[in-house]
Predict the structure of ABC transporter ATP-binding protein.
Amino acid sequence: MFFKLENSTIAFGGLVANKNVTAEVEKGQIVGLIGPNGAGKSTMFKSISGFNKIDSGTIRFKDRDITKLGPVEVCRAGIACTFQKAQSFAGMTLEESVLVGAYLRRKRKKDALPFAHEMIRFVGLEGKEQVKIPRLNMFERKKAELAAALATEPEMLLLDELFAGLVPTEVEMMLELVKKVNGELGIALFIVEHVLRVIMSLCEKVYVLEYGEIIASGSPQVISSDERVIKAYLGE
Ligand code: ADP
Ligand code: MG
């Protein structure tokens, strides 16, 4: 078993944002998570990455119980994430923000800095190292976030709406980049995405979340012909 979230339930006051959610990702696999706004997708990713404490359920990664770990420990265990709303790197340069990630496993600057530069090159942002994050355009910021996550050397990466706000040509370029992350680096991907084309062209398996519950899962082909899914997804 590579990754399994099992029977995860989390409530915010009276609102049950995730209810008995179970999802699995295999080593090197690309898995999608779709569902209407407010379905609980980001909540699920924040639970996996240690930012939310789940009320019940378990999270296992590589035969280890990571249910109670905090964000840094989860990252150290090998799960990194990019967020739907990231403001954390506001005052930093691209180089600094990617270095933060690289320092997780590389204690010395002489190890961390070249690796940070390698990840910056990997996402195609070479030459922008000294640019402050807010000065980057949306597409560059998304790639910067990806580079920072990759710098932690994850085995699984959670991408929460990485493609949102990109114009079609950028979506295509990001698709190629994400395929490269999976293909060349062998990193498993768990992807929340509204751009269905992205889900269809990338994912081996897709989970559909509605009102906090998984209502369907399977191949993109199976999912896209499921009546409940069509209703839930287009009912947005
Ligand atoms: P999605 O990412 O699928 O659009 P979210 O996981 O962001 O949905 O939100 C699911 C529900 O949980 C929403 O109703 C949202 O308002 C609520 N929610 C999420 N995080 C919190 C929080 N920290 N406190 C209170 N309510 C929250
Ligand atoms: Mg969300």
About this structure: The longest strand covers residues 15-25. Residues 12, 15, 17, 35, 37-43 surround adenosine-5'-diphosphate (ligand 1) (CB under 6 Å). The beta strands are 3-12, 15-25, 30-34, 56-61, 64-65, 79-82, 156-160, 188-192, 205-210, 213-218.
